[in-house]
Amino acid sequence: MKFTDVYLQTATKILVFLIMTFSIYVLFAGHHNPGGGFIGGLITASALVLLYVAFDLQTVREVIPVDFKKLAAAGVLISVLTGVGSLVLGVPFLSQTFRYFDLPFLGKTELATALIFDLGVYMCVVGTTLTIITSISEDDI
Amino acid sequence: METFMIIISGILFTIATYLILNKNFLRIVLGLTLFSHATHIMLISINGLKRGSAPLLGEHAESYTDPIPQALILTSIVISFALTALLLVLGYRTYIELGTDNMKKLRGESHE
Amino acid sequence: MSSLHLAILLPFVFVVIIPLLYKYTRAIHTGWIALSVPVALFVYFIQYFSIHEAVEPITVSFPWIPSIGIHFSLYLDSLSLLFALLITGIGSLVVLYSIFYLSKDRERLNFFYAYLMLFMGAMLGSVLSDNLMVLYSFWELTSVSSFLLIAYWYQRKRSRYGAQKAMYITMMGGFSMLLGFIILYVISGTFSIREIIAAGDSLTSHSLFIPAMFFILLGAFTKSAQFPFHIWLPDAMEAPTPISAYLHSATMVKAGVYLVARLTPIFGAQLEWSWTIIIVGIITLTMGSFNALKQYDLKALLAFSTISQLGLIMSLLGVGSLALNKGYAEHSLVFVGALVAGIFHLINHSVFKGSLFMMVGILDHETGTRDIRKLGGIIHLMPISFTLTMIGAFSMAGLPPFSGFISKEMFFISLIELTENTSSWAAIIPVIAWIASIFTFIYCMIIIFKSFTGTYHADRLERKPHEAPFGMLASPAILSLLAIALFFFPGLVVTSILEPTVKGMAPQVFAVHPDWHTHVTAWHGFSLELVMTIAIVIIGTFLYRRIEKWKGPVFELLPKRLNLFTLYDKSLITMEKTATSITKSYMTGSTTHYLSYIFGFLIVIVLATLFGTGAFRLDTSQDSPIEWYELMIGIATVIAAVFILFSTSRLMSIMGVGVVGFTVSLYFVIFRAPDLALTQLVVETISTTLFLLCFYFLPKMKANVESIRFKLSNAIIAIGVGLTLTLMGLSAYGYRLFEPIAEYFTNSYELAGAKNIVNSLLVDFRAFDTMLEIVVLFSAGIGIYTFIKLRYAGRNE
C-alpha cells in the first residue's frame, strides 16, 4: 500500500511535528490539565499513523528507529517498577509521591513519581498501537 | 437531558445486540464497538449531566462533575480499542486461513 | 513442623526427586533409590514400637488454614503406629520385590516409583492425621495415586477401565465422607478427631448425627471394597502385581477399616453403626469367598478373597463396637474381644495376603500365566515357591501353625458371643460365617494345589518354569516367617499394639475396666470354635475333591446378566449417553446461540430483579435542560447507528461506526469531560484507520440472507436487551441511595499534587487498575503480532 500524494505528504511533514509537539505537551500537562499518558500516547500514535498513510512504513521506522514491541514492553516495565519502587521504600505497592523543586529556567516545578508512571503508560500505548498497525500492514498474504 | 441520553444509549444497545447476534464477523466487531459506546454514554449519564465544571482544579469552580465515571470510561475506551483491534485481526486472519467470515460455517463438526 | 510431619513429607519429596534423578541413574534400577524411603520411614516408626509397652500418644500440630479450624495436626497412637508400620514395612518389601519384578529396560520406572511414593505419603498422611479435612485430602490422594498405579500400563484397555472404575467408586465414597465430615464439623464445631471424641455424648442427640455416620460409612465401605461397592477391586487387579500386593491387599483397602476403627469412639455406641457394619461385613465375607471359587485367574481369586477378608475384619469391628453400647454394658468386655480379633486379623491378613500376591506374581513371572487351568505340576520345579504359597494360603484358611488360625478362632468366638448376648436371630450369623469359611478353605486349597500339583503341561505355559531369583523370594519369605512367628509368639503385638489400640477404640469401656488385659494364644482348649475349624477342614476337603462336579452346576444357577458388574457398566454407558445428549442440545457451536443464552439470562435476571423488588423508577424532575444542538447530535447518533444496521457495504458500515464514535466524543465535550473527549477522538481516528487497513483483506459483506425467523428472534433479543438496559439505567439515575464519593478526590491537589482529578485517579489513586490496563493493552498488541507473524509454517510449504 503506497500513497503518493504530494499535497498530503507536504502537509504531513508539517503536521506530524505539530502533533508530536502537542502530544508531548499533553503528556506532561496531564497532571494539571486535560491529558496524560493515554491521550499523549494515542496522539503520538495517530501522528505516526498519519505519517504511515502519507508516506509508507519505511518512513515511520526511520522516524522512530526502535522495535515497537520493545517500546511497549519497556513502558509496562517502567510502570511496574514505579510500583515496586514504592515497595522498596516500605509503602504500599504503587504509592505515588510528589515534591516541588526550584529548577533553573523553569522556576518552581513539581516533580511527581506519577509522571514516571504516566510515561510508562505513554510508551506502552505508543508501542502497542504501532505494533498493531505495523503488523497488519506488513502482513503479506 | 439525562433521560434522553439513556434512551439514546438504549437504542444503541439494541442495534449493537442485533449486530452481535449476526453471523458476519465484521458486523459482530462493529456491534461490539457500538456496545461499548452505548455503555460509556450510559455510565456518564446516570450520574447526572452538566452539574458543575470539568474536573480540573485549575477551573476554581464551585462544584465539579463526578470524576470517577470519567476515569472508568477512560480505562474502558482504551481496553475496548485493544479488544476491537484483536477481534478485527482475528477475524481477518480467520478469513485468510479458512476462507469464510461466516460464524455458521466456522462452527465445528457436531461430533466434537 | 515436627519429625512426624517430615516423615509424611519425605515420600512427597521423592515424588519429585525420582523423576529428576531417573535420567542420570539409568544404570541402576530406580527401585533401589525408592527403597530408601520406606526403609528409612520404617526405621523411624519402629523406634516408637516396643514389645512390652504401648506407644505414648503424640500430638503435633502445624497451622494450615487456622481461620476455619484446619490444622495440619498429626496424632500417633498405637492404631496409627500399626498402620504406619504396615505401610512402611510392607512398602519396603514390595519395593524390594518390584525391583526384580519390573524390568529396568522396558518399564517407565520413574513414573512407577513416583506414583508409588505419592501413594505412600498419602497413605501415611491419612492414618496419621488428626484433622478430618487433612485426613480427607490425603484420603483422596490415595484414590488418585491408586488410579495412576492401576492405569500404569495405560496402553491396555482393561487397565484404563479398571483405573476409572476404582476412581469413580472410591471418589464417590470420598465425597460422601467429606459431607459426613462437614456435618460432624457443624455439629461439634471442630475438625479435630480428638476433640470430637472428647465432646462425646453431647453430639449424639443432634438430628444430623446419624446421617453423618452413614455418609462416613459409605466412604469407608467404598474404600474397603465392601458389598455392594466391591466391584472395583477385581478390576483393579490390572495393576502390576507389586501394586496389587501393596495397595489392593495390604494398605489402601484397609483405609476403610482404619476409618471405622478410628471413629468407633464417636459412633460405636449407636446400634445403627454396629449392625450396619456387621451385616455389610458378613455379606461381603460370604459373597467374596463364594465368588472366589468361580475364578480361574489366580489374581482375580485373590481379589475376591481380599474382599471377603475385609468383610470379615469389618464385621469384627462391628461386633466389637457393641461394647460401647449402653444396652450391652454388662457384656462390654466380651465384645471387646472382637475388636482384638479384628485388629489382629488385620495384621495377619496384610502379612499373608501380601505374601500370596507376591507369590502369584512370581508364578506369573516364571510361567507366563496365572490361569489355574494351565498351571499345575510345577511343585518339583519351584519347591520354595510352593512352600511359601502354602504358608500364606494355610494362614488364610485359618490352619495351624500359622497366625491366621488364631484370628480365625477369635472370629468364631466373637460371633458365638454375639449370638449369646444379643437377639436370637443373630444366631444365623455364625452359621453364615462358618459356611463362608468353608468357601475360604476351598479357595485356599485351589491356590496351592491347582497351581503346584496335578499334571504338568509344558505346552500350556509360555516359558519353562524355574525357581524365582532369591531377591524376588525374599519379601514373601519374610512375610511367611512373620506369619509363623505370630502364631507362636502372638505376644509380639499384644501389649504393644492390640491392647492399646482396643483401649483407644473403646475409651468409655476401659474407664470402667482399667485393669483389662487380653490373652491371645494358639490353644484355647477343646472348644466349640475348634470343632468348627475341624468341621471346616473335613467338609472343605470333601468339597474340594469333588469341585469339578458341583462347581459348574452351582454357578449355572446364578443369573449372569443381573449382577453388579454389568449394572455398573450399563449405568456408566447410560450416564455418558445422557450427558452427551444434554450437552449437545445446547452446546451447538453457534456463537449466536451462546450469546442468546447470555443475553436472555441478562434480560430475565435484570427485569425480574427490577420489577420483583420494585426498584424501577422514572424521575425526570432532576433532568438538566436540553439544547437544540444536543438534540441534533443525538439524532445523528441514532441515524448513524440505524444506517449500520441496514448497510450492506463494508465501507459504509465502518463509516457509520466512526460517526457514532465522533458524536460520542462530542457528548464528552458537552458533558465536561475533556479527557474523555480527547481520548475518544484520537481512538476513533486510530480505530477507523485500523478498520480500513483490515478492510482490504476482509470479504465483501453479503446482504442478510438469513431466514426471517432467525432475524426475528435476534430482533426480539436485541430489543429486550436495549429495553432492559434502558430501564436499568433510568432506575439507577432515578435513585440516589448514597452520596457520591467524588468529594474525596477533589482534594487531589493536596493528596497527589495534581489539578486534573481524572488523571490523578488514573495514575495515583487507582494506579493499580491502570497498570493492569496497560498490561491488557500490551497483551492485545502481542496477540495481534502473534496472529500475523507466527503462523503455521507447515501449511504454506
TrEMBL record, chain A:
Where does the source fall among the domains of life? Bacteria
Specify the Na+/H+ antiporter MnhB subunit-related protein domain's residue ranges.
8-131
Q: Which residues cross the membrane?
A: 6-28, 35-55, 71-94, 115-136
Database matches in InterPro entries:
CPA3_antiporter_subunitB, MnhB
Q: Does the keyword Acyltransferase apply?
A: no
For this UniProt entry, what's an example GO CC term?
A: plasma membrane
Keyword Manganese among UniProt keywords: no
Q: Where in the cell is it found?
A: Cell membrane
Keyword tags: Cell membrane, Membrane, Transmembrane, Transmembrane helix
- One short Pfam name that applies is MnhB
Q: Where is the signal peptide?
A: none
Q: How does it sit in the membrane?
A: Multi-pass membrane protein
Q: Which family does it belong to?
A: Belongs to the CPA3 antiporters (TC 2.A.63) subunit B family.
The name on file for this protein is Na(+)/H(+) antiporter subunit B
Instruction: State the taxonomy lineage.
Output: Bacteria, Bacillati, Bacillota, Bacilli, Bacillales
UniProtKB/TrEMBL annotation, chain B:
Q: Which InterPro entries match?
A: CPA3_antiporter_subunitC, NUOK/Mnh_C1-like
Signal peptide coordinates: none
Q: Does the keyword NAD apply?
A: no
* TM spans (from-to): 6-21, 28-48, 68-95
| Membrane topology designation | Multi-pass membrane protein
Please give an example of a GO cellular component term from this record.
Answer: plasma membrane
Pfam families reported for this sequence: Oxidored_q2 (PF00420)
Where in the cell is the protein located?
A: Cell membrane
Which UniProt keyword terms apply here?
A: Cell membrane, Membrane, Transmembrane, Transmembrane helix
| UniProt similarity note | Belongs to the CPA3 antiporters (TC 2.A.63) subunit C family.
Q: What is this protein called?
A: Na(+)/H(+) antiporter subunit C
Q: Which organism is it from?
A: Paenibacillus montaniterrae
UniProtKB/TrEMBL annotation, chain C:
Q: What is its main location?
A: membrane
Q: Which residues form the NADH-Ubiquinone oxidoreductase (complex I) chain 5 N-terminal domain?
A: 64-112
Span of domain MrpA C-terminal/MbhE: 713-789
Pfam families in alphabetical order: MbhD, MbhE, Proton_antipo_M, Proton_antipo_N
One GO cellular component this record assigns the protein to is:
plasma membrane
| Recorded topology in the membrane | Multi-pass membrane protein
All residue ranges annotated as the MrpA C-terminal/MbhD domain in the record: 637-700
Q: What transmembrane ranges does the database entry give?
A: 6-25, 32-51, 81-102, 109-128, 134-154, 166-188, 208-233, 245-261, 273-293, 300-323, 335-363, 375-397, 425-449, 470-498, 522-544, 594-616, 628-646, 653-671, 677-698, 710-735, 770-788
Q: Which GO terms describe its molecular function?
A: antiporter activity
Q: Which UniProt keywords apply?
A: Antiport, Cell membrane, Hydrogen ion transport, Ion transport, Membrane, Sodium, Sodium transport, Transmembrane, Transmembrane helix, Transport
Which InterPro entries does the annotation name? CPA3_Na-H_Antiporter_A, MrpA/MnhA1/PhaAB, MrpA_C/MbhD, MrpA_C/MbhE, ND/Mrp_TM, Proton_antipo_N
Domain spans labelled NADH:quinone oxidoreductase/Mrp antiporter transmembrane: 129-422
Q: Where in the cell is it found?
A: Cell membrane; Membrane
A GO BP term, please? proton transmembrane transport
> What PANTHER family does this protein's entry cite?
NA(+)/H(+) ANTIPORTER SUBUNIT, NA(+)_H(+) ANTIPORTER SUBUNIT A
The UniProt entry's sequence similarity note says:
Belongs to the CPA3 antiporters (TC 2.A.63) subunit A family.
Can you name this protein?
Answer: Na(+)/H(+) antiporter subunit A
Organism equals: Paenibacillus montaniterrae
Gene that specifies this protein? mrpA
